[in-house]
Specification:
The protein is α/β, with parallel strands linked by helices. It folds into two domains: 295 residues, P-loop containing nucleotide triphosphate hydrolases (Rossmann fold, 3-Layer(aba) Sandwich), CATH 3.40.50; 224 residues, no CATH class. It is 57% helix and 10% strand. It has 22 helices and nine strands. The chain has a nine-stranded mixed beta sheet with strand order 4-3-5-2-6-1-7-8-9, sandwiched between helices. Strand 7, helix 8 and strand 8 form a beta-alpha-beta unit. The longest helix has 45 residues. It is rod-shaped. The two termini are 16 Å apart. The mean pLDDT is 80.
Length: 550
Amino acid sequence: MEYKNGSFIMLVVGPVKSGKSTLVNLLAHRFVSPTDKLECTVRPSIISNVDNERDCRIDVYRSKVEGRKAEDLDLIVDKLRGIMSDDEEVERYLDKETFALTNDNIKEVIFPSYNREDRTIITSITTTGSKLLRNDKDGNEGKIFLVDMPGFDGNNVNIENDPLYEAISKRVDLILFVHSSVSAFNVTSAKYLDKLREYNESVPVYLIHNVFDSSYWRDEEGRRLDVERQAQKEYDEIRRKGFNIEPDYISCVNLGKVTDFTDGMGNYKADFNTELSDEQVEFAKIEQKLYDKITTNISELRLKRCLERTAQLNENLVALLAEKTKGFRERKDDLDRYTQYLSKIEQELGITDAELNDIVSATSSQAPVSAFDSEIDSRINSSENMSQCLERLERLADRYFSDVNTFLSENLYQRYKTKVAEYVDRMQKLINTEIKEPAFDRVSVAIEERLTREELRQYIKKNSWWQKMLGIPLTVDVVRDAVRKMKKDLTSYNTLKGLIKDEVHAMETIYIKQLNDMFEAAKDSFITEEELNSLETLEQLRSRLSNIIM
């Protein structure tokens, strides 16, 4: 669309007081940019042609939203060039104030405002203009725009703190680089060229050396050689920076003399008429050279610039997509590693044989047995029969199993807190996305609920110490001895292992399912389904754009 539109942008840049605004006025054949001994231009102006004097005006564009300078400038340029026909977006982000094109308004509207609250982006000036702006050569279509930029070393606006320099430099087709005899090529000039190379390396550059000739006590030839030497140094620096500047794209002219001659005899002494007239002739040659260069090759220049800009935009878009997909891809890779690691959760969090032995040993040595000891020390009815004795032993076994359950539940809960913390730590070493340790519930499965009263009774009856009791009189000592033997039997390692092994594995199953569900639910924190779909689309788009050859 930019190429089809046919417009062409010349950007006038240089240090403060180098004569940029003077050059702009001369090229526009009208007073469109204020000049003064102080810094005059603190924001860009874009000058273009209209056919009728009644359509000449000044439009000041201001941002409605802070922090959108570069984006808003692109909107304005696209609108002025006719690339954008819809005003909706422009009106959403920008305010426009219109003034009549008069000398007084140029001085008042464009003259510096150092108000930091001023959100002016650019001033558009339309004028009947010169032959250059009219672009009236047969076969040419589209406007030629002339952009007057603030000095890149100015106090208020410069290349260091104003994104407008970058934004407009990316859009131009030709740079008019203005230097003067008193604004010699310096560090700031070099810095601007370095920045420009980042923005728009291949844009052609035309060097205008503005001659400030005040050494009238020296011979004319010596003064001329000084000017040429200074201009040549500027040209060499531009070439050295890698810019496209042709040998004939350098001109030396006294813009002040040309301006005074153009403004008429009232601005200079009659004795200088020939001198100023000659300078005007030299400037006319520069103007014609620019006109011929642009209008003869405008289609080629625009196509080249559009292709370069499209290639740069494509490169920027690919880089942007790469950056965007990088985040998605890292999170997707994290999710894949997380899922793979989660598939080993039973292996990672399951109770090993060694751990089971530790649990049995801990239970055997630490589970409360005070119920047995209390029973041994208690008063036992000497007339107790075998049935009553069996009930006594069953109650003791129930109490012991209840105590074992309490100890076992706490032991496994603490063990799983440690195992889960270590499991998350191992995963976190493989994954960039933060993994939160889940807060899981304590599990308790009671042994006494898994053993029926009949099974417990049969367990007691089949033991050797119970069998021996059947053939002897049942006394208090015999009952107490039975309690001691049952205590010894139930708290022994082998007996406990047989009793709690299934209990431990049952609790293990519940813990692993609970934790697996929690870890599965946490997958959404890595990347959403919508983002996964976006990742696939963006990677396809990036691949296709990367394969485009301009």
